[in-house]
Design a protein that fits this description.
Shape: elongated
Number of domains: 2
Strand order of the largest sheet: 1-2-3
Structural class: alpha+beta
Oligomer: single chain
């Protein structure tokens, strides 16, 4: 893990086209802004994990076995 120290209004670049900027620091929170191409999905970690869980459930073996009934034997 790379750990960087940034102050308010400073940013880091990820590759050539993703910028992460520190917008505000208050109490025990940091507000960040992310500038990225529309083709790059940006989610909070808890939302990302929920999406992954839903995708895994949708692709579970029981769902796939139901699809096998559509294919002639």
């Amino acid at each position: 893990m790379l750990v960087l120290t940034r102050k308010e209004n400073e940013s880091i670049m990820i590759g050539d086209d993703i910028e992460v900027k520190v917008l505000d620091l208050r109490d025990n929170q940091v507000k960040i802004g992310i500038v990225a191409p529309r083709s790059v999905a940006v989610h909070r970690r808890e939302v990302y994990l929920a999406i992954q869980a839903e995708n895994a459930q949708a692709a579970s073996a029981s769902e796939v076995s139901d699809l096998s009934k559509l294919i002639p034997q």
